[in-house]
Amino acid sequence: MKWLFKEEPTHYSYDELVSDARTMWDGVRNPLAQKHLRSVRKGDHVFFYHTGKEKAVVGTAVALTDAYPDPDDESGRRVVVDIAPREKLPRPVTLKEIKASRAFDTFVLTRAPRLSVMPVSDAEWREIDRLSRTAS
User: Fold this and answer.
1) Homologous superfamily of 2-132
2) pTM value?
3) Please, what are the averages of pLDDT over each run of 10 residues along the chain (136 residues)?
4) FRET partner for 8 with CA separation of 20 to 30 A, picked from 30, 48, 115, 131?
């Protein structure tokens, strides 16, 4: 499977992930985002999306673990996943570009933009990768 994880770069940026070499993806509270996070498996590919002022896919990562119980959640309901960086995209792919393309008509990012963890189809992955390698 392929995923998109969203984060405010002032909280935790892709460059920080590169510097750290790995991180535990935690803090996901939304029930639907948690449902998606539960489905993440070791080896899954992840787009790293900067929210806030940037609103762009900026890099890729890989899941190092299956989802596992959040060690800081006393209720035992939430899960986390460990991820590591793979590569920074040649250029960020903005939400504006994504919304302008018919290729993303059914992409969760365009329909539920506040969701912090979402699936990405193979076709959507390829199109974001292609856009990152072309001039804006």
Assistant:
1) ph1033 like domains (3.10.590.10)
2) 0.96
3) 98 98 97 98 98 97 98 95 98 97 95 93 98 90
4) 131
